[in-house]
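Hi V.,

You were right to ask for the full record rather than a summary. Here it is.
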Amino acid sequence: MVGGGVVGLATAASLVHDGVEVVCFERSTVMGERSAGSSRIFRLAHVDADLVRLADRARAGFARWGAGIVDPVGCVVSGGDAAERARAMAAAGAAHELRDDADELGLPVAGPVAGPVLVDPAGGVVDVDAVRALLVGTAGHTIVRAEVDGITATTAHPGGEGTAEVRVGGVPRRFDAVVLAAGAGTAALAADVGVDLPSALQHHARFTFALPDRPRPAWIDAPPTGLRTYQHRSGPGRWSVGGSVDAAAVAWEVGPAEATSASRDAVLRFARERLTVVPEVVETLYCTHAPDTGDGITFARSGAVLAVWGENLMKFVPVLGQALAAAAVDGSTPSVRELAEV
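Predicted structure:
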């Protein structure tokens, strides 16, 4: 494994469970960077029916991991592609409701919400701390804290055979298979073995505010004008908000400090004008964002190296960990459609 984020660690945990020897290289903090923080939105609401089905499988997987890992408060999607997501949910046979307004849904908003409004009753919030504790408990001993310099793959034979060389500190180490799930570093390492993945990156930050505690659905809002946001309860009396600010303000060359400041200004202004939270930031969570990825998952193989790439993969991770572990052993390449139909 290259990458000790939630996808890499879940894959390592599945391999450990299956009795397969595994090493997981992580350059910094286990489940840091893109897997950091205490919470993430869980939703079935996607624009692709296969992703809806995959998320439903993942929901069952979280339940097997432990009661309460997903807080079943539901998820609301308003404006934007809410109607398209509703059609995908209908095609997948997932329960949902499409409404004209968000009245009586418990959102902490001051004023009307632009429709259409999709209610995803199976949505909620993932307890990332619980996921981290579970996965570290199973696969923490596989972690080697080191940065991978590069990867070389041999050409796989028809039976899926082949090996891969991982270079760490300039020293090569050979493995029967490598799963590459290194977050922001995935595209550059994948290029070593001839796999072309989107490489553009942006800075992103979400901000937490105080809010009187009560059950509230997670919320994804894309109004016709103004700031697009995702929002959810991230702890007792805490409400977290991330916004899609102007691309130029969060471009990679801007740097994390300036980009976070611009994002903070935009989200704080939005909170003061549109939300019922206490309009003071109490916590900031920074991560990287891949703007060209979309809402799906990409799997790509070169010989013995299998790469996975995508945004917001936390909600799929019980299925992804098992699928990537199996593919590492048998030399296959997963697809969303196949995983959705299992």
